[in-house]
């Protein structure tokens, strides 16, 4: 396995890092030895995983890890999880792939505890950074537990997410586990544009807020309406009861 930090260390100290280029350098090294890595990719939602799977599935074995205890309410969490699972299955079917899907436990109290004192932060501020770190940490731990070569996140596909903050957090966590972090800036190379095209092609639900109760309140999100739509979707989904039984509630969300 190759640690991508070696490519960063060759750059000037004050040079802004293009994490997309770092990933490309890493992929070139894999290709030299015909190495096909096993990657566990954290995904916040199906839309963010679209282009990521298209990009990486040709050169690696992937598991999508849905670990997002920041999502409120619970019915919306279940809906997004089911939409993610459905997309992975349809992507596999259309492209003859074997992407795996794994869902983490739903523990909203963990998120609330992590961001305590940052409830009033603006979106994109420290509260979001803590949330990135929380989900990346869960992904790193799970990837190490299951014997993956790398852990990664699809969060960098979003134009609203700070790729530098996400990648720096990933490298910090790399020092705490026995596997490597996979750097990225998936929004580059028209990645975000391609994700929108794929969402239309696969008819994927695109949520109107990140999931966080605090950011949603700032946006004026109507939770009753969100909950109703999610509940209706979930009750009509063939796998609802199966996945509902797998969710361990980690505590009530405020």
TrEMBL record:
HAMAP family in the record: QueH (MF_02089)
Biological process according to GO: tRNA queuosine(34) biosynthetic process
Key words of the record: 4Fe-4S, Disulfide bond, Iron, Iron-sulfur, Metal-binding, Oxidoreductase, Queuosine biosynthesis, Redox-active center, tRNA processing
Job description of the protein: Catalyzes the conversion of epoxyqueuosine (oQ) to queuosine (Q), which is a hypermodified base found in the wobble positions of tRNA(Asp), tRNA(Asn), tRNA(His) and tRNA(Tyr).
GO molecular function annotations of the record: 4 iron, 4 sulfur cluster binding; epoxyqueuosine reductase activity; metal ion binding
Protein's pathway: tRNA modification; tRNA-queuosine biosynthesis
UniProt keyword Signal, yes or no: no
Binding site for [4Fe-4S] cluster: 44-45, 128, 131
A family per Pfam: QueH
Cysteine disulfide links: 210-212
Family: Belongs to the QueH family.
Record-given protein name: Epoxyqueuosine reductase QueH
UniProt EC number: 1.17.99.6
């Amino acid at each position: 396995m190759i640690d991508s930090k070696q490519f960063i260390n060759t750059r000037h100290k004050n040079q802004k890092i293009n994490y997309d280029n770092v990933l490309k350098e890493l992929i070139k090294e894999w290709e030299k030895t015909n190495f096909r890595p096993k990657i566990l990719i954290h995904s916040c939602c199906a839309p963010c995983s679209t282009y990521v799977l298209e990009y990486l599935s040709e050169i690696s074995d992937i598991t999508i890890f849905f670990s997002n205890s920041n999502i409120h309410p619970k019915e919306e969490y279940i809906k997004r999880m089911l939409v993610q699972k459905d997309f992975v299955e349809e992507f596999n079917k259309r492209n003859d792939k074997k992407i795996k899907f794994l869902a983490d436990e739903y523990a909203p109290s963990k998120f609330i505890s992590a961001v305590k004192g940052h409830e009033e932060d603006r979106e994109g501020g420290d509260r979001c950074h803590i949330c990135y770190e929380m989900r990346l940490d869960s992904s790193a731990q799970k990837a190490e537990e299951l014997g993956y070569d790398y852990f990664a996140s699809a969060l960098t596909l979003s134009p609203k997410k700070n790729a530098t903050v996400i990648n720096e957090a990933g490298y910090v966590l790399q020092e705490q586990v026995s596997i490597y972090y996979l750097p990225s800036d998936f929004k580059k190379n028209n990645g975000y544009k391609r994700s929108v095209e794929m969402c239309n092609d696969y008819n994927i639900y695109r949520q109107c807020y990140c999931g966080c109760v605090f950011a949603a309140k700032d946006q004026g999100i109507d939770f009753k309406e969100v909950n109703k739509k999610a509940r209706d979707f979930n009750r009509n989904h063939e796998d609802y009861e199966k996945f509902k039984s797998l969710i361990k509630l980690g505590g009530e969300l405020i």
